[in-house]
Structures are given as structure tokens and as C-alpha cells.
Amino acid sequence: MSRRSRAREVALQVLFQDDLNPGHNPADTDAFLVRRLKAPELVELARSLVSGVRRNRGELDELLGKTAENWTIARMAATDRNVLRLGAYEILFADTPDRVAINEAVELAKRFGSKHSAQFVNGILDRFLAGHGK
What we know:
Order of helices and strands: HHHHHH
Largest sheet: none
Low-confidence stretches: none
CATH topology: N-utilizing Substance Protein B Homolog, Chain A
Radius of gyration: 14 Å
Number of helices: 6
């Protein structure tokens, strides 16, 4: 796993926490990122991903909901939903090449999701890219 992939993995853990425990203190995030990543450049990457998804979550959810035929964001598994948010954020707002963003999201889905998560994430992000890519 690349170092940048590791930063995405830790960012996903924070986003999952945000999603399932909305009452937690977001300020705890920074200490978690530093503890898990240590390297300043990786901490900064994870910070930017987390803050970007948090800031744009409403828009991301709306666009993903329109892209995912027959699925609402609320019906998706929490892991899949947050992997999709992260991938869509990178496609729309980050300097990450679109295909890299999708590949990274699929790898996260394989690692943390269910048996079908990788296919689900890949299909939705491919459609998302077709409609919203750079």
C-alpha cells in the first residue's frame, strides 16, 4: 500500500466515525490523524480529504444519490457511502487524477467493505465520472 493510500484509509476511518457518530467532537480528528499517520505530509493529505468531504458533504450526497440508480445515500452501507464520498470528492475537487481516485476508492471498498462493495463503488464512481469528471 502506498503512503498516500494509507492517508486515504485513515481519512476514511474519520469519515466513517463522522457518519455513525455525528455527536463526536470533530476536534479529536486531528489528534487521531497525527497518531495514525505521523508523517506531516500524510497528515496534511488526510486533513485536506476529511475537511473537503465534510465541507462538501451535502453536494456530494446529492450528486451521488442522483448517480446511484435505485439507491439513496441513506440505504447504502456506511462503508460504501463514505468511500463514495471520498472518491467523488477527489474527482470533483482534488488534484488526484480521476482514474486514480476511482482505483483508490475501489481498493478501500475491497479492504473495508462487503463482498460486493468494490463492484458497487466502481460502478457508481464510473457513472459519476462520466457526468462530473474533470
